[in-house]
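seq as requested:
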Amino acid sequence: MSRVLFLEPVGGIAGDMFLAAAIDLGVDVAALEAPLKTLGVPGWRFALARAERHAITGTHLDVVLDEREAHPHRRYRDIDALVAASGLSPRAKETALRVFRAIGEVEAKIHGVTLDDIHFHEVGGVDSIVDVCGAAVALELLGWPEVFTTPPPLGSGTIRIAHGTVPVPVPATLELLKERPVRFEGRGELTTPTGAALLKELATFAAPPELVVERIGYGVGTKDWPDRANVLRASLGRRSSDTSSTLTVLECNVDDASPQLLGALVQTLLARGALDAWVLPAVMKKGRPGHLVGVLCEPAARALLLEALLSETTSLGVREHAVTRTALERRFDTVETPWGPVRVKVGLRGGVVLNVAPEFEDCRALADARRVPLKDVLQRALAAWYAKG
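struct tokens:
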């Protein structure tokens, strides 16, 4: 089932508003906090409250620090090291680092230095690190939906930051959203650099496909703007015709790579969000044996996987094209086996069950833990599902 998250930054967007909207959608706070506590940054906690802006009620979130840093000065490589050493999943790490890199690159451009030389100020603080990494974890908990957004309002006026008084939108926000549709309206800073980077790296600036909306969340900002509700609305749902979706195929030819590297590459691609990845034998120019590396992914994961193919293979280029996939409706049932519970993936069309398959990793974990043949666990799980029917 193709999941879609539609963002409407009515009052703008900031990192804490995104997290608040995700929690208002139903993301479990404890599940969100657990991986963030492995980041190795000073003590912090979430402060959550119900709040109202212009008669709209939602969730307000603050990242409260035990010992607030007055002027944090972290380099990009410092943040890279923090995230890399954390307990976030591989895809969440990659997603968070994409956002930080986007901010770092525009800051380096604005200040005329290299990415390695740039110092993060406000964005290097503990609260901003938690916001960005939290956004990645929240998307993971929501099932990595495809994200769409309306053009954000940027605000107006001036604001005081570490570098002094600057115009709103601040230079980093405007640079991040260059070539994206925006609205120059509102008073004060409505869209922050963190919020801008989240939209730039995670969202498609377009109307979503036809949706069946299942959940709605409101992330409430701190200030109460006179001309608009300071909320970020997030609608989570599925495509109204969820048997068909548009996906992206990336592929490249490789004729000088070790089989060990290609095997590891497939695992890397899957960890970074590929729906599927494969390596096929090929005969290339001059009769040389080679391989065709292919990836199937959601459009939102395209940039990350493209970067992986270019950096992890010896290929000099990657081809891509859009494809239409017709998929069965899916659900997960849980069955009991003599060795423990196993999830079973059920594929349906029009409510009729067409495919049933035990979740392989569940079965393998039980087989390893209980020292029984994997095939026995798979067979017992399948038999248990049919016995329930």
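The CA atoms of residues 67 and 187 lie 31 Å apart.
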